[in-house]
Amino acid sequence: MGIDLITRREWKARAPKGAYTPISSTRGVKVHYTGGKVPADLADPGNHHKCVELVRGFQNHHMDGNGWLDLAYSMVACPHRKVFEGRGPGRLTAANGAGLNSQHYSVLALVGSSGLTHPNDGVLHGVLDAIDYLRDHGRAGKEIKGHRDGFSTDCPGGPLYEWVRRGAPRPGGSAPARPATPKPTPAKPKPSGGWPGRYLAYKPDAMMTGEDVAAWQRILKRNHHTIDVDGKFGRMTRAATVVLQREHGEVPDGIVGPRTWALG
Predict the structure, then answer these.
(1) What is the CATH number of the domain that holds 99?
(2) Residues 6+ apart with CB under 8 A from 145
(3) Which helix (H) or strand (E) holds 31?
(4) What are 200's strand-pairing partners?
(5) Which of 130, 224, 245, 264 registers the highest number of CB atoms within 10 A of its CB?
(6) DSSP per-residue codes, 107-147
(7) Which residues, in sequence order, are bridge partners of residue 44?
(8) How many CB atoms lie within 10 A of CB 200?
(9) pLDDT of amino acid 193
(10) Are residues 211 and 159 in the same domain?
(11) pLDDT at residue 190 above 90?
């Protein structure tokens, strides 16, 4: 079965407030849940209209409450195995957290922390259909992770995260989301020289600056972190450093010493 896609036009999405940031590919997809109450009867066969209302409500909250340009998620999966087009492939999500959005697309599953808390087969199939779609149309990589992987949050909730940790299998024992098609990638350029000899860290009262900071920021960008190469070790640089350290099993202290520098 292919994806049962509900386009933005079909769910009557509002136009974005501005231009999306384009992206050419990602490492994969992160799975999210609503984090609030979802109607316990949402999965009933006659209640798909409630899914549409939820998605519109999330878009309104993100645009009017948070001031974002659009719904934060790339795609949304509902309990009826239907997939809503959010920002879609090839566009930067806003759901994964600062410094993390360029690394993965985001798929919201319509389950919450109360009411409907356990994903049914329709939700799980929908999430995997969305992942296949993002791989086909947005060059999403093979990773399937939860929002909490790299960001301090309970999302995507216990039941959904346990499924993600089991490898996100298709319900009924069928195949999981198709593996990403291997793509030839150029050799990653290495930083010029080794560790510069001083520890780099975020110091709000006396911000560290210099070419060594800019060199580290270039390393972070080559590792798919969205930051400016301005030679200033600010909060965004620290956040991206913490994520890189956590991904490699290092102590996530945000300090760039010789071990962290070598991760690049």
Answers:
(1) 3.40.80.10
(2) 28, 29, 30, 31, 104, 164
(3) strand 26-32
(4) 256
(5) 130
(6) EEES--SEES-S--HHHHHHHHHHHHHHHHHH-EEEEEEET
(7) none
(8) 24
(9) 57
(10) no
(11) no
* Residue (of 160, 150, 87, 166) closest to 126 by Cα position: 160
Domain co-membership, 95 together with 213: no
In the numeric block, which tokens belong to residue 99? 């410094």
Say if residue 34 is in the same domain as residue 150.
Answer: yes
Overall number of domains in the chain: 2
| Partners of 201 in the β-ladder | none
* E-strand stretches of the chain: 5-6, 26-32, 37-38, 75-77, 83-85, 104-109, 114-115, 140-146
- Judge contact between 69 and 17, C-beta under 8 A: yes
How would residue 134 be classed by pLDDT, with cut points 50, 70 and 90?
A: very high
Phi-psi sector, 95: left (phi>0), alpha (psi -120 to 50), beta: alpha
Residue 181 inside a domain? The answer is no
Query: Is the domain of 74 the same as that of 26?
Result: yes
Q: What is the pLDDT of residues 74-107, one digit of tens each?
A: 999 999 999 999 999 999 999 998 889 999 999 9
Q: Could you tell me how far CA 73 lies from the centroid of its own chain?
A: 8
Q: CA-to-CA distance for 169 and 175, rounded, in angstroms?
A: 7
Domain end call among 145, 173, 201: 173
Is position 179 within any domain?
A: no
Q: Tokens for 227, please give them.
A: 């930051």
Domain ranges, residue 70: 5-173
What's phi and psi for 217, nearest 5 deg? -65, -35
Residues 161 and 192 in one domain: no
E-assigned strand segments in 166-205: none
β-pairing verdict for 140-146 and 5-6: unpaired
What is the C-alpha separation between 121 and 119, in angstroms, rounded?
A: 7
Which pLDDT score is estimated for 173?
67
